[in-house]
Amino acid sequence: MDGIQVIEIARPQARNALDRASARALHDALRAFESDDSVSVGVLHGRDGNFCAGADLKELASGELYDAWAGSSAGMLGAPLSKPLIAAVEGHAVAGGLGVALYCDIRIASKSAVFGVFCRRFGV
Hints:
By secondary structure, the protein is of the alpha/beta class. It has a single domain (about 5-120), classed as Alpha-Beta Complex (2-enoyl-CoA Hydratase, Chain A, domain 1). About 25% of the residues lie in helices and about 20% in strands. It is built from four helices and six strands; from the N terminus they run E-H-E-H-E-E-H-E-E-H. It has helices at about 20-35, 55-60, 95-105, 120, and strands at about 5-10, 40-45, 85-90, 90-95, 105-110, 115. The strands form two sheets. A four-stranded parallel β-sheet has the order 1-2-3-5, with helices on one face. The protein has a two-stranded parallel sheet with strand order 4-6. The protein is globular and about 45 Å long.
């Protein structure tokens, strides 16, 4: 589709939870979208029925430095984009994944979409 950039979060084995590598890949894809003058709108979606389940808790538990959610311009999402980004939400958009959806300008949700912040239940 001319003028449309599709960006996919592709870790379906973890409900598209973001580890450091996939968070960096998402950051890089968003910066590439921002700098590409041939596209005017982006669509962000998750692979295989889930949008994004937030941070990969197994990686967080490893004790390694996890700066993907730092909230700075160097973090995963970085500075706001100058072009509209649409979240196509199917399945889970929870915890940090909800934050990713909220970063987008527009959210289109399927009937299967689940939004929430559940980490407060577990003391995370």
